[in-house]
Amino acid sequence: LKDQFDNLDKHTQWGIDFLEKYAKFVKERIEIEQNYAKQLRNLVKKYCPKRSPKDEEPRFTSCIAFFNILNELNDYAGQREVVAEEMGHRVYGELMRYSHDLKTERKMHLQEGRKAQQYLDMCWKQMDNSKKKFERECREAEKAQQSYERLDNDTNATKADVEKAKQQLNLRTHMADENKNEYAAQLQNFNGEQHKHYYIVIPQIYKQLQEMDERRTIKLSECYKGFADSERKVIPIISKCLEGMILAAKSVDEHRDSQLVIDCFKSGFEPPGDFPFEDYSQNIYRTISDGTISTPKQEGMRIDSKTTVSKAKGKLWLFGKKPKGPALEDFSHLPPEQRRKKLQQRIDELNRELQKETDQKDALIKMKDVYEKNPQMGDPGSLQPKLTETMSNMDRLRMEIHKNEAWLSEVEGKVAARSDRRHSSDINHLVTQGRESPEGSYTDDANQEVRGPPQQHAHPNEFDDEFEDDDPLPAIGHCKAIYPFDGHNEGTLAMKEGEILYIIEEDKGDGWTRARRHNGEEGYVPTSYIDVTLEKNSKGA
């Protein structure tokens, strides 16, 4: 390749261009990895839940698994960023630095090659000039010899002319000899420089170019390997992320989720009892006079009650709207089961706080003992205010725990006694045998119905009740409040636990019963909050 300097120049330039082309490829791959990681993180951020109160944290295994998968995906995005960073530092950055060094080295070697070629060309020109001068002097010497021989053979030529021609010949011959020696010296010098150029200088430059090109090839090979190693290094961590996703998927427990739904919405209320038998045939056995007066009264009452309940349905449904008032300290505004859970959670939190205060008290006592034994370390009296405050906090927490435990015992006792109370109430709702009389008493024989006297709360003038719409509705029974009810909603009646109320309208299937206090205040109360006893043998109070 001694004569292929120009081709080697083009080849080395192609090598550098290819190196930069691969560096551009790596740069674009890094941008892809960075954008991919950024999009993954945005995706995770979009679907990750916002910070919420402790009570609203996801508890279902399917939700927890999904959030774990999001966390693993976020870690996976981090590994893509690691890949991009490793490629940028180990591959792209190294390629750009090496490309700059390669260009500098190639430029230096090519300059050395051009200088050597220029020097050889200069030597060749000097040799060629001496050769041409030698050739010219030889021709002049030949001409001088021919002129001398012609004059020497010419008899008419004078001796002076012959002598002059001889001197001219000697001069030309001498100059030709000098040019010959100079040409020989220049030729020898050029041959030596040419030999040195093609066998020493140029091979050395080409060897340096070859080594440079081989180093470029090796660097590309290392970068190819580094490109793959950047990906291979994170494969174990990526595998762990994928394994974490699989474990999250396996952690989904449908039975546990169903149990959480039950625990979340379980109220602790007993299901409603059976509907009582309503004997519409009682009107057949009424007297004409009694039926004339009473029948319109009952129909008017029925229409009025339906209208009232239908108006109240939209705004009085027990769990349809939250009460307007604030949550009570003892959670009495919640259903029994949910109240029990809230109280138990509060007791657990108070116990944890009490344990912290106890640990702090023990630490302060130990520090006080150390100060008493070693006064130089500190004043024992300086710890007394903190110790007093800690003791006060402990007493306060114990009182809170005792108070909440009392409420919890009360709730658990009520839930346990609920079934017994419902049993006594269901007896008054079920009619398995016999018939109801028009006045509420029943017998096994339909022909032995007896009209009972009205209750002591009956209105003295029943005839006037039919025409006075403002008179209160008659009581059809009484009830006892099992749980307190605030009655914040419009149309509801507040009641205290254990309070006795009159029932003036039964539950029509919407979960509400119309009741009245002794002072005449009326309203709707939740049927599940009261223990109802209907008085079938009374027309009302």
Structure report:
Helices cover 66% and strands 6% of the residues. It is mainly α. The chain has three domains: 4-259, Substrate Binding Domain Of Dnak, Chain:A, Domain 2 (Up-down Bundle), CATH 1.20.1270.60; 336-417; 477-534, SH3 Domains (SH3 type barrels, Roll), CATH 2.30.30. A five-stranded antiparallel β-sheet has the order 6-5-4-3-7. The N and C termini lie far apart (128 Å). InterPro entries: AH/BAR_dom_sf, F_BAR_dom, FCH_dom, FNBP1L_F-BAR, FNBP1L_SH3, HR1_CIP4_FNBP1L, HR1_rho-bd, HR1_TOCA. Residues 416-426 have a biased composition (Basic and acidic residues). This is Formin-binding protein 1-like.
Short description:
This protein is mainly alpha-helical and 541 residues long. It folds into three domains: 4-259, Substrate Binding Domain Of Dnak, Chain:A, Domain 2, CATH 1.20.1270.60; 336-417; 477-534, SH3 Domains (SH3 type barrels, Roll), CATH 2.30.30.40. Helices cover 66% and strands 6% of the residues.
Q: Percent of residues in beta strands?
A: 5-15%
Name of the top-level CATH class of the largest domain: Mainly Alpha
Principal-axes geometry comes out as rod-shaped
What about the largest sheet? Answer: 5 strands, antiparallel
Taken together, the total number of domains comes to 3
Find the CATH superfamily of the largest domain.
Answer: Arfaptin homology (AH) domain/BAR domain
How would you classify the helix and strand content by structural class?
mainly alpha
User: So, CATH architecture of the largest domain?
Assistant: Up-down Bundle
Order of helices and strands: HHHHHHHEEHEEEEE
CATH fold descriptor of the largest domain = Substrate Binding Domain Of Dnak, Chain:A, Domain 2
